[in-house]
Amino acid sequence: MKASFPLKSIFLALFFSTLFLASAQVTEPLKVLSKSANSIHLSFEAPILEFKNVTTPEGIMSVPNLQGGAALLERGAPDLQKFACSYIIPEGELPSVKVLKAEFTDYNLEVAPSKGNLFRDTSPADVPFVFGSEYQKNEFYPTTLFEAQTPHIVRDFKAQALWVYPFQYNPVLKILRVYSAMELEVSFASSIAFPLKVDSQYDLIYRNLFLNYDLAQRATIDTEEGAMLIISDSEFIDQMDDFRAWKTQKGIANEIVDIASIGDTQDDLKAYIQNYYDTHNLTYVLFVGDHQQIPAYQASSGYSDNYYGYLDGDDSYPEVLVGRFSAETKAHVLTQVNRLLQYEQSPPLSDAYGESVVVGSAEGPGDNGEYDYEHLRNIQALHLDYTYTQGYELFDGSQGGADSEGNPTASDLQALLKADLGIINYTGHGSDFSCASSGYSSNEVNNLTNTEVHPFFWSVACVNGNFTGTTCFAEAWLRATDNGLPTGAIATLMSTINQSWSPPMKGQDTMNSILTQTSETSSSRSFAGISMNGCMEMNDTYGAGGADMTDTWTCFGDPSVILRTKSPEPMLVSYDSVIPVGASSMDVSCSSEGALVSITLAGEIIGMGTVSNGFVSVSFEPISILSDLTITVTAFNTVPHIGSSSVVVLEGPWLVVTSHEIGNQDGLASYNDSFPLYFTVENIGTQAAASVNLTAQASGSLEVMNEGVTIPALEPGASYSYTAQDFMLNVIANAVDGEDALLVFSMQNESNNWSSQVNIPIHAPVLEITEFSG
C-alpha cells in the first residue's frame, strides 16, 4: 500500500496526533503472531506518528518520531528511528530473516540530520547540524527494512537482536517513507536446545528479553537459586559473617574468598571468576573493598565491574550479576551489611517504601525524543499506576504538574529524603560528587538521617559512580551513617564514565518498567537483576552505544537485594513444629504466591522450594541428627517469616534409607545403561522393626527393573546394607543430561510402612551443532 502527502498535510496530522497522544495507551509495536521451534512470525504496527520541527543551516526541517522508537544516532545521516527485539537462536547457525509484507505512506518533506550519539557533558543544543554523505545520494536511507545484529550469549542461550526500520528517507527526492505495518519471519534451520534448569533470576530476565522464551518451553524448565561468590579484602572478611549467614538462611549459598589468594592483576581476578562460574551454579559476585583492594576492570569503555560478569561470548551481556560494597574501613563494611539486614530481614512497616521522587534537567531530547523531565514524568506515571502512592517531581525550570516553579535545590531533595523515600530516579548532568539538577551532593548525603527506610537509586548522569580515584557520589550513598546507624541508599546504579544521552534513558525506562510490572513478563525483583535486564534491552536497542553504558554502569550494593515498593506485609505460614528423624520432606503452606521457602540445618541449606497455589513440599536428604531446622520464607514486599521445626525421634520402629551407591565401574547413572543399586537401611526408631518388603518407584529418566527385595528385621540403631546384584535400575535411551531423577523407596510389613527418597543425577550426551552450512 502506498500513499503520498504534501508537507501541509503533515502539520495538520501533527496537530491532531498531539491531541490524541494525551489519552493514548502505549502498545508494543513488535508483536509475535506465531512461533514454533524453528520460526518466529512477527508483526510491526507503527505507533502514533509525530513530526518535530528543528532549525538547521538549510532552514526548518522535520524529525519524525514514533512513540517508543529509538534514534539511529548516525551523525550526519537523516535523524530516523528503529525498533528492536531479541530472540534465542540455535547454537552454530545464523537465522534467516525476511519481510513477508509491508504497508507504507510517502511524505514530501525535508528530514534533519542526526547529531549522533552525544554524551551528557555536552548539551545537544550546542552541537551544530552536519549534513553527511547520505544527503548526496539519490537512494533511501536506510537501504533495508531490518538489520539482524551480531549474535551474543546470555548465560544459557545464544541470542540475536533484530532492528526494524519503520522509516526510509531519500534526501535528494525529499521523500520520507513511513511504514505503518510489516510482517517479518525469522527462521532457524534447527531447533533451539533448552536447558533442564535455569537460575531463577535469569529465568525472569529471559521472560522479559526473548520473544521465544515462551510458556510452553518454560513449563519444562525447573528454576534454581544460584550461589554468590564474595571476594573481599582480608581485613573485611569477618565483618561479612552476618551477611553470609542471612543469605544462606534465605536460600543463597555463598562462599567468601580473600582477594590476596587470587592474584595481583585484573586478569587474575577475571580468570578466577571464570573458573568459579564454570564449576559452580554462580549467579552473583560481590566485591568487598574499594578499587585499591579489588580493582575494577580497565576496559576500553572505562572502569568496569560488570566486565567480570561477561563469562560467555565477546559481548556486554553479563552471565553473572556483579555488585560492590565499596569500603576502606571495617565500619564501611558493617554499615552496608547492617543496612542490608534491616532492609531484607527486619524492615520497618512504613508507607515510605511507596514514595518516589524523580529529579532531572530540562535538556534533551534523548531516547524516544523526550527531554529529561518528560522521560522522568513518564517513569513517575508508571510508579503511580503501580504500588507507589506518592510521587515528587524536582525538575529544572518550571515544568508544571507536580514540579514547583524555578529550579530545585539540594535542600528540596534533602527534605524529602529526611521524610523517607523508597526510590530515586535521576536524569541529567552529573559529577563525581553530585547531581547538577538540584545540586545535591555527597555533602548532603553525609548529613542524611533516614535510618529506617533506604531508597534504591537509578542515575543517568556522568561519573556519579567514578570510584576508582576518589570517594564518589555513589560511595557516599552506601557508606552514609547517622550516629552509627546506616542512612543513605540500599543500592545505586551509577556510571564510572560520562554517560550518553539516549541509550541510558532506554535502560532506565526498562528498569522502571520491569519494576512496576507493566507487562506480565516483567517480574525481576533483585536490584542487579532488574538493572542488568534494563542494560541488556539497552544493548539490544543501541548496540555498541548501549554496551559502553552497560560496561561502566556500576551496581553499588548487594546485587541480590530484593527491592521493596510498598510497606511490607506479613505472610501466613504454617508447617509441622516437629518432624521425625529420617524425614526427607516438609510441607509448607503460605499465603504469598511465589514465596521462596528455604530450610537450613546447622547453617547449611538442605532444601528449597517455591510456593505454588499456596503450598510447597520441600525435599531434602533424610535427616539423621536431632536438631532444629530453620524455616525462612521470603517474598516480594513482605516481612520475612523465620521459624523452626524440631527433629525428634518418634516412638516405635522407623526405617530410613541412609545411603546409596551405584554399583557399576564409574559410579554414574548414564544414558542407556543398567546397573545394580546398593543401599543401606537403618532403624532410627525406639523399637525393633520386623522384616519388610522394599520396593521402589522412579521418575524422569530412571526405571526400576525388579519388583522388590526383602530387608531383615532390625533392632533400634541397627542397619542393613543391601549389596546383591539384583536390585537393578535402568537409564532410558533418551535421558536428559543433568536431571536429578527421584527414586522413592517404600518399606512395608504387616504393622508399618515407611518411605525414603533419594536423588540420582543423570548423565547423558548433549549434542550441539557447532557449524552449519546450507
Description of the molecule:
With 774 residues, the protein is α+β, with helices and mostly antiparallel strands. The protein folds into 4 domains: 191 residues, Immunoglobulin-like (Sandwich); 330 residues, Rossmann fold (3-Layer(aba) Sandwich), CATH 3.40.50.1460; 76 residues, Immunoglobulins (Immunoglobulin-like); 109 residues, Sandwich (Immunoglobulin-like). 18% of the residues lie in helices and 34% in strands. The protein is built from 13 helices and 47 strands. Strands 1, 2, 3, 8, 12 and 13 form a 6-stranded mixed β-sheet that branches. Helix 2 runs parallel beside helix 12, helix 11 packs across helix 12 and helix 12 runs antiparallel to helix 13. The chain starts with a strand and ends in an 11-residue tail after the last strand.
SS-based structural class? alpha+beta
- Summed up, the helix count is 13
Radius of gyration: 29 Å
Global shape: globular
CATH architecture of the largest domain: 3-Layer(aba) Sandwich
Oligomer: single chain
Mean pLDDT: 92
CATH topology of the largest domain: Rossmann fold
Low-confidence stretches: 1-26, 518-522
Q: In CATH's first tier, which class of the largest domain applies? A: Alpha Beta
Approximate helicity band: 10-25%
Strand content: 25-35%
Distance between the termini: 34 Å
The overall strand count is 47
Main sheet summary: 6 strands, mixed
Number of domains: 4
